[in-house]
Amino acid sequence: MRLEQLRCLTEVAKNRSISKVAQQLYMTQQAVSLSIRQLEKELDCTLLIRNSKGVTLTEAGKATVAFAEQVLEEKENLKSVLDQLEERESDEEERHIHICSISTVINHVLPKIIAHVHKKNVTVKLDMVDDLETVIQKIKNQESDIGLITFNEQELLRIMENFQGEIVLDVLARDKMIAVFNRKHYDGETDSIPMEACFNTAQVRTLYNITPVENMRQGAQAMAAICSSDADFHRNMLKYADAMVLMAGFSYQYFFSSKNFVALPVEGLDVPMVHAAIYHKNAENWTEELIRMIRQEIRVK
To answer: Which of 4, 181, 200, 290 is deepest in the core (most CB within 10 A)?
Structure first.
């Protein structure tokens, strides 16, 4: 006795027609008739009386239909219970991670990380914010699980002193600022760029999410500063324009390293940058695991 046979019998009992049931169940009339005949053979009784006007149930047929309806109802109840259990297990296993960031540098590695953890039933929500204070407040208020930042190391440590014991600072990598420009402008006779060259108003520069030292901040007022996380835009700018770009060493390695460009340190520009993660001291264990994965993807030479 199969559920398919019981389904066919109950539908025939409702419709009094094998042809209508065949259409409803996407079966041939022969298949519906065969299913009921097999059930009759197994039960050793006649369930239907067939005539030119349709079909009617025998007494045995009526009893069997009543039994079949109970079985099919219990089958639906069981399916509902199993669906609820599966949904409950899924809710228990699924994890949501909220990341806020002011670090376009670190975000270069996030697509790979997100794709990996998604396979483990982890959903990642990423918010790009404007300033460090916003990131800190989101972590302090536990509105976000992880904050990703690229910042002047000395300034960052000074700020984080106010949150000791409340927010954990995890330095992922230390980095530096470098000047990048088109190789056609390089004569090969120098291994660094003078500070004043970076503030020539005829040139253009980009800052990648750092807090510049004071003299850099003053210099920026006298020139156009283009800020964008679009790597193709900056590659084209370096390739076709007479431009110099200040950026994190990691960003250059990740997106710009090419025989078409030259990357040199800037004389007198010693900005100790760090790529870091911050999180609340009461963070879940998987927070540190995700940060470990991000650290492994960051390669700063």
So the answer is: 290
Do the beta carbons of residue 286 and residue 95 sit within 8 Å? Answer: yes
**What is residue 39's DSSP assignment?**
H
Angle 216-202-182 (CA atoms, 0-180°, nearest 5)? 90
Of the candidate CATH numbers 1.10.10.60, 3.40.190.10, 3.40.50.300, 3.40.1260.10, the domain formed by 177-264 belongs to 3.40.190.10
| Tens of pLDDT, residue by residue, the chain (301 residues) | 788 888 888 888 888 888 888 888 888 888 888 888 888 888 899 988 887 777 888 999 899 889 888 888 888 877 777 776 666 555 545 678 889 988 767 777 788 888 877 777 778 888 888 788 889 999 999 999 999 988 888 888 888 888 877 899 998 888 887 888 778 777 777 788 777 666 553 444 444 333 233 333 333 333 334 445 566 666 776 776 666 777 778 777 776 667 788 888 888 777 678 889 999 988 877 888 888 888 888 766 5
Nearest Cα neighbor of 135 from 94, 107, 115 is 107
